Amino acid sequence: MSGFAYRRRKIASIVVLGLCASSAFVAVGVLALILGFVLLNGINYLNLDFFTHMPTPLGEPGGGVANSIVGSLLIIGVAALIGIPVGVGAGVFLSEYAGARLGNIMRFTADVLTGVPSIVVGVFVYSVVVLKMGHFSALAAGIALAIIMLPIVARSSEEMLKLVPRSQREAALALGITRWRTILSVIIPAARRGLVTGGLLAVARAGGETAPLMFTALGNRFWSLSVTGGPIDALPLRIWRYGIGPYDEWHQQAWAASFVLVLVVLAISLAARLVLTRR
Amino acid sequence: MQTDSLLDLQAPVMAYGMRVGSEPQAPVSEEEALAEGLVVRKLNAWYGSFQALREVSLLVAPERITAIIGPSGCGKSTLIRCFNRMHEVAPRARVTGQVLLRGKDIYAPATDPVLVRRRVGMVFQKPNPFPTMSIFDNVAAGLRLNGFLVRRSELADAVERSLRQAALWDEVKDKPNRPATELSGGQQQRLCIARALAVEPEVVLMDEPCSALDPVATLKIEDLMRELARNYTIVIVTHNMQQAARVSDYTAVMMMADDRAGEMIEFGPTREVFTNPRDKKTEDYITGRFG
């Protein structure tokens, strides 16, 4: 090999490695940048009051987002209550019962549903739930988020259930245990960690959704604990309201609320990892 | 190197160290098999369009050990999976012919495979205890998950009885609540045997139960099988001929036909199959010419 070709090859190798490495750093660094930026801008408001107090009337200093945090938890709770059981059920059907044809159709549908813009889901739930009920509610918001969680939970549970070795199914069936009992008492427990992780990741994803909430939860500056009663606040909505407002205190609170939201989502993701790797 | 002495039909007996004593010399009586054992008639099995078994007929004597031997891929496992209707768990699997359990065809139209499996237990090649359950819960699984109403004390009795039968009780009686996965491979396999025995099956199928175990654990399981044969009808698949010679009362030899379908070429009392095989292929197989 001539010296020139060799040098050329070496340089090409270094260039490609450099490009890949810097891409990787960008991908990872963005998270650090976001966290730092959000923290820096919202630091003034990040104190205990921010978590325990209600929004103050405009012009009065201080105040917090207690109602938004509680609202978010309520909405996510409703969403998880609907989305996780139905999603896991769909996953069980896909992995244990559906034949190749039906399974493929369902998987494709789920993947398409994952890709439906969340604002479309919001509009859909608005027309089907909010208009029928006559008002906005945590229930409607929960349903919207459940729809977003559904395909994620279904696909991840299917994958997790498929990881349970066939020998486990056979062991149970050979004992004369019925199919549904086998699934309930042997297969699901064996896959439980993966199922929990899938659920948590879906919750983390749904927790940050904003667009569907505009059409379903609407937002509310006041305290509300009612699931079906009326408009309710949520962290992403509060961030949006404060963020587009004209006042500097609002902007700072939007940053602080953003930090809280990122932390919550991060905590859920970390919990998911822990569940999966704990032994 | 093949020596001349191996061509002598008595040679395999010596080589395999056959049991002598009360082992049966006569063929299985069909009446006995019909009344309390298994009668297999013209069994065919398919995976999709591939025929895995062709026209297999066999009598399984009650409270005896029947070994099924043959080279890899000859349909041994498929055959015993037809005895508790596990074959049909595989996608596009299909069976024709009859398997009579105490005279009743388990493939009769109204028969529920789940009920068949409660009467015909199975132990698999690789120990497969439920990893999420304790030792106790593994043995109790069949009783609990079948919804048999058993009181706590009865359950404990059944678990102890099964573990004793499986010669595992002394090793685990102090730690019934430890995870089953903490046991060694041989212990896990005996646990699986205990789990199968707990539901009091009439027949126990063993699909190469020792192939994943070391020689010491293998010997333990073989002793255990002899012990169990006092009360249970046992069918064991093995491609270890010494094992078949050591433990079984009757031996069936299977071979693959040209189209890869499994066929039974020889069946009789173990001693006879090993010392005086009727089929040339059996002789070649047990003398180690192939397989």
Structure report:
By secondary structure, chain A is mostly helical. Chain A folds into 2 domains: about 45 residues; about 230 residues, Orthogonal Bundle (MetI-like fold). In chain A, helix 4 crosses helix 6. The longest helix of chain A is centred in the N-terminal third of the chain and has 40 residues. Chain A is built from 12 helices and no strands. With about 290 residues, chain B is of the alpha/beta class. Helix content of chain B is about 35%, strand content about 25%. Chain B has a 6-stranded mixed beta sheet, with helices on both faces. Chain B has a single domain, classed as P-loop containing nucleotide triphosphate hydrolases (Rossmann fold, 3-Layer(aba) Sandwich). The interface between A and B is medium-sized, with 20 and 27 residues.
Labels describing this entry:
heterodimer, A: mainly alpha, MetI-like fold, 0% strand, globular, B: 291 residues, alpha/beta, Rossmann fold, six-stranded mixed sheet, four-stranded antiparallel sheet, 36% helix
Tell me, what is the CATH class of chain B?
Alpha Beta
Distance between the termini of chain A: 53 Å
Are there runs of chain B of 5+ residues with pLDDT below 50, and where? 1-15
What structural class do the secondary elements of chain A suggest?
mainly alpha
State the CATH superfamily name of chain B.
Answer: P-loop containing nucleotide triphosphate hydrolases
Structural class of chain B: alpha/beta
Q: Which percent band covers the strand fraction of chain B?
A: 15-25%
Q: How much helical structure, as a percent, in the residues of chain A?
A: over 70%
The helical percent of chain B reads 25-40%
Task: Count the beta strands of chain A.
Answer: 0
Shape of chain A: globular
